[in-house]
Amino acid sequence: MDCFRAPDESRDRSRPGLDLYDRDASRVDRDHRREDVASRLGSGDPEVRCLSNIHLAFHRVGTPFADRARAHTNSPRTKNSARCPPRFTNGNVLQKMVQLVDDMRADLVLLTGDLINDALADLDTGLELARTLEARFGLAIIEGNHDLIENPTEFETRVKASGIPFLLDESTIINVRGFPVQLLGLSWTRHRGPDRDAVIAASVYKLLQQREPDAFPILMAHHPHAFDAAASAGLPLTLSGHTHGGQLMLNEQLGFGPALFRYWSGLYNRGQSKLVVSNGVGNWFPLRLNAPAEIIHLTLRTADASG
To answer: What is the per-residue pLDDT across 147-177, written as a single tens digit (0 to 9) for each?
Structure first.
């Protein structure tokens, strides 16, 4: 579940930029390249030096069911979406996933699509799973392509009726420790064809018309190619999933990930804009190769302007 921890309210709340750091407080200054930060639950929050007004620390939390779980969350993972029962998982696996998320004590839990694999018969279980996730200030969900395979209208109607915040080209502002955070949720682009990325971009630009200038914005977009438009618009943070980390990868640069996507796993930079693509914690078939299941834990902090 792309888990997001909000800025510490003891810091200055001016909101200019977003800097990206690994857990050793090293500056990530690559452009369009991945930065993997492996971590295990229980390692604690990273020590992030105050070098600008907003910092983001990124943890990839490996799961003990990387090759078995169909319950998966994409993404900061953030992460990203919770792909739920049945087929390649069971109740015990789902409970382990919930415990991993709950142990993070996150302020926000964000699910970036694919709550189910395809069958609407699984939806009630998926929604119940989402309700059990603990977040201090709120949870939000968007849709992914797998959610819409059987009946898009029924999926959207039932999730809306569930009471779980479900953002379909909508936004919401959550006050996190006195700091307004605006979540902008992009619906799945059903258009197919060579101009699909252009259609995704147009949807992003339209959604960003809802942006509130006094809130820190986070775009939740299942397809990571939405990042191109978000970066062009100067949006500081985008959370995506969809790619499964490539699912089958020979190495970090060879496999289905780079063959199909510009962004497929980890952290990406473009100017001051950042993208987090989560591998998720499940499979649409029961095999992963060099694309391990994960839960993303992000920490945002404000800092003194003097650094």
So the answer is: 999 999 999 999 999 999 999 999 999 999 8
